[in-house]
# Entry
Amino acid sequence: MLSLLSLGSGSSGNSAVVYSENSYILVDAGLSAMQLKKRIKEGGLDPQKLDAVIITHEHSDHIRGLEVLSKTINVPVYCNSLTHEAMVSTNGSVKSWNILSSGESFMVGDINVCGFSVMHDAVDPLGFRFEKNEKTLGFISDVGHVTQLLLESIKDVHALFIESNYDEILLQNDTRRPWSLKQRIASRHGHLSNKQTADLIGSIAEGGLLKSVILGHLSNDCNSPEVARAEVILALSNRGISEVEVNCASRSEISGPFIIEIEVDEEGEEKDLEGYAQEEFPLFS
Ligand SMILES: [Zn+2]
Ligand SMILES: [Zn+2]
# Structure
């Protein structure tokens, strides 16, 4: 099995668990340590069993809980060298740093992980591919621009977690944000609009492998799950694609688990998922 549980996604904090029966990976730790542990348990998982924490980039909404979490759970932290430099002084309780390189895959238990560079206003931000039994999950949090490398890295994924930060009109009309901040959000080093995300999803889905999309990091003021989801569904239907499931990750509570890969036994029956049936969890959509 390969699954994704979002613990929370948005400017107030980002974190998710990518896991199999045997291996648990925390992707980003942007909620308080207390909330991280509470929500991992709500998802039916044991925070003490985390095998790795993987960091996409050093912004506080992605690492806020790391220092305190590392005081209570001895778990290795994976990030690239520039992100390590940016984080090390404020995360002294991390006992084991593992420096990873873009494009080089490594195993965390039985899950293959590979990072790739994305454009965002951090020192060296990454997206990730997680793979088990030839089923792949693409994970992209903050990104301002879809590069060829990004497209190549996720063109064959079966499931995709990706930010869908703002609706272009709602951002334009927003009176609370100064013009300079709007420019930063919309820039190539900021965040993806619903339209940019929808176009990207549409082009990947044309490959025929993509079955599930989870939209994350939705702006509270300049977006809504309904608006973001509608934009993606429109982009898919414009391409004649209807079989991709589109969900949104909640800002403030767990979403999922989203099951990407289910192992089958010799008779073709799904193996027991130890109670992690997708229907049991209300999807935030
Ligand atoms: Zn960021
Ligand atoms: Zn962020």
About this structure: Residues 2-265 form a domain with the Metallo-beta-lactamase; Chain A fold (CATH 3.60.15.10). Residues 273-285 have pLDDT under 50 and may be disordered. The first strand starts at residue 2 and ends at 8.
